[in-house]
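Form 7-S
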Amino acid sequence: MRSKHRNALHTPAFLLLLLVAACGNHKKEATENKRSGPKMLRAEGYIVKPQSFQNSYATTGSLLPNEEVQIHPEVSGRVTKITFTEGLHVEKGQMLLQIYNDDVKAQLQKLRAQKQLQLKIEARQAELLRIGGISQQDYETTVTQIKSIDADIAYSEAQLRKTSIYAPFSGKVGIRNVSVGAVITPETVIATLQQTRQLKLDFTLPDQYRHNVDIGTQISFSTSGSLDTFSGKVIAIEPTADVTTRTLKVRALIENAEHKLVAGAFAHVTVPFENKSNALLIPSQAVIPTDRDKEVAVTRGGKVKMQTIVIGARTNDKVEVIQGLQEGDTVITTGIMQLKDKMPVTITRATDH
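Output:
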């Protein structure tokens, strides 16, 4: 009896019955999974609405003298006089240094004496030419000699002027590098002259903001070690962006009559843009960067929709959306790494601030 029972367990009919039962179980499990659907995501959201927004951009820059020049002599020579005090203010046209020039003055004196002699000869020859006492060629030779002497006098006068060095503009002279008696050359730096009653502030701005700044735009800035806030006016914008950083160089002019600012200082610059009354702002953590664009996840009929956006200015915790969203959209702000397009989602809490 036991042997017959064991044989019955291995009959084809029995094996077929087991196969049908297994298929039924798989179909039941698939039906249950289909009914339950994909997993529902629970997340928080942000309701998009127009807001008043003072758009601005924060950057850094450097303060520079309005004018700055290293004072070099144009000719070589020995210093005979220094007429400035290092570290003090000088006026435009004020003499700063004198180079030995007695040899140039002697040459000038000689040339002027030669000219006087030739002028007397020219006057006598003019009378002789009038009565036919000399040829026209002799007279023209004397006139040519006078013109040659005039050219030599002009050259010597120019050389004489180069021996006296004057301030090209009003400003403060830096540390003096030469002394009386020193022999200097055109490569010698006598001192540095800076104009600091006004300063230049150079900073960079991303190319995307090139239409937000123009000549005359007022900027504000602060410097390290000072609690004061200063202001300036944009006077120049580089016409092309740097190919590496994609930024524009901007220059502002700063009034510094009280000398509170020092050239070379590091500045924290704030560039104000237009004040918008209906800007669309969203939390910065809601933005998902991709290889080409930036996206956010919004809810549409209880499901996730991945939406491509174009962003503008940034604040500490929010970004401005220029394109891709509209008032009333709900942007998902949590569970960003789990989001997929068309995924069911339940918003557990939504805010608009």
